[in-house]
Amino acid sequence: MGKRKKVKNEKIILEEILQDENYKLGTFRRNERGFGFVNIGEEEIFISSKLSRNALDGDNVLIKIFENKELYRENNQKREGKVIQIIKHENNTLVGTYKKSRNFGFLVPDDKAVSEDIYIPKKKSAGAKNNQKVVVRIDKYSDGINKAEGTVVEIIGGLDEAGVDMLSLIKEYKLPNEFPQSVIDEATSISQKLDESNIQKRVDLRNEEIFTIDGEDAKDLDDAVNVKKNDDGTYTLGVHIADVSYYVKSGSKLDKEAIKRGTSIYMMDRVIPMLPKELSNGICSLNENQDRFTISVIMKIDEKGKVIDSDIFKSVIKTTRRMNYRDVNDIFQYVDLQNKKINDEIPEDDIKRINDVAKKYKNFIEHFLRMRELKNILKNRRDRNGSLNLDIPESKIILDENGIAVDIKKYDYLESNEVIEQFMLTANETVAEKFYWLQAPFIYRVHEVPDIDKVDELNKFLFNLGYKIRGVKKDDEDSIHPKAFAQVLDEVKGKPEERVVSHLILRTLKVAKYESENKGHFGIASKCYCHFTSPIRRYPDLFIHRVISSYLKHNYNINEELRKKYEIEAVKYSESSSEREKIAQKVERDAEDIKKAEYMQDKIGEIYDGVISSITQFGMFVELDNTVEGLIRFENMGNEYFIYDADRKTLMGENSKKIYKIGDRAKIEVIYADKITRKIDFKLYKEDLAL
85, 75 in Cβ contact below 8 A? Predict the structure, then answer.
């Protein structure tokens, strides 16, 4: 009997292959147009659709990087490669719309990064009906010749059933829609009353005037503020944050679930919270006239907005009033009307509301005016430092009782919103700076300097509008300063191109993320920044509270074992929280896209004014005044060929010589809108621009 030949196992073969620096492992991120990118650390490798081996978004793949950069060029900014092997498929289920035929069915995936339909044999359809939303398990993956094949494992509901669109998103992203019973049990076991023995160990601030200021619908109130003006002209700002770490202990079931979720996700008519409502809406929420445990940051601020002294300590507060942004803003308007600082005519109904609000809160008006004074001082300092004020309006989507979008408008960002924004920014900076100098294990909110190449690309476009990011030197990252960006934003303020320039600057900037190493925050021109103020809905804030609590407990002298534990956790939770944040942002963006398309579905044929927001090789995007954006393809721009100028981001009609550029006003007609595809298409109205 012959000897059996030993064959190396796959792991050993893979290790040998990876000795060659042209072979790398990574995660494939697929674009809906078929191509994708594989991140290999500091670099992303471009993979053309032809060379992706039908890898799906999220797949772990082995790639080979080409030495010849010109091969299969579809993106000339990055090195290119091809997928050699799919090591592991990330997802084995997909959500989409079931399409039924006589002998079989197929799934049209909601995820546009999955470019092919999934074949469903009739016996594996689970009785799904045509156009129902379903979850499908993939039994066989596409090999490039045969389609992927799957089985319907869950029927979500009909396309027009209330809530099915948002539930489909939850299923698509595999979001934890419900808390495990063990987590709920742990939450309900926590008393909704304060531990009297612990009150004695805290600074008692229950006799102070302290206010929460939030949206009218907010239920998880985790920050409260108060302001005093001192005899020497300085201000004392108190920012009091719910002491969530007191209730959510490290290693508990609540903590493990919070780590898994990373953040609360807001989908207009529903929230997928990081913590159960017993905590988020109960004992951790700073509800009016209720005793609550907090961590307080008290800051002494001079007349130029500089924090000249600060203290952090455990406290107990009793919120004086629960305020909302609209009411506080009405108080500001009431005072301005009394002082004749408002020249615009205000409707009688608004004046009545303003007067009623001022009467209701007359005993606290002076306190809110102190807040306003300090807000202006802090904002002016931040503006001087070069903080970027991007004018990118948020959408406010109004839903009816069935969750159907019935109106879309810009979110009103009021002066009272600015008050809380400036106070929270200041508290976050103060906390980050203190623990940075302590060299404590920490999680920072990092926003790095943008890439010089991207700034150069931005300047090429800005040049055509008469602007420039000044002072940037080639191959010198240190030459890029926030003030140069802030100056351009100031120059475009109030001009037609303001919104477009803001969008382009945003796209030029890097994405903010969590890191255990402090690298500063470019966007707010801060050398030291963290997220400390929202521990109910963000895990990095909760972790930071835990670190702060340990340092306070041990008089700023924690032992080496605890320090090492926090160092390891800071790295781990920075990475996981950044990933969860990305997912949350995708979900929230997709939810908006669905509802915007739903709202526009019955607007086919209607005419709107908008602004050209983007120019591409296949057409241009126009954003309407209500924040809805749609695509105008070349065939809907007139009967001629269009020349695309990549540097100037313009389109020119070959015959008419008419030039379309970003920032121009455009009159459009709605021709297509579909909540399933999440797409909206326009055509130019009478093939003209309303210039």
Answer: no
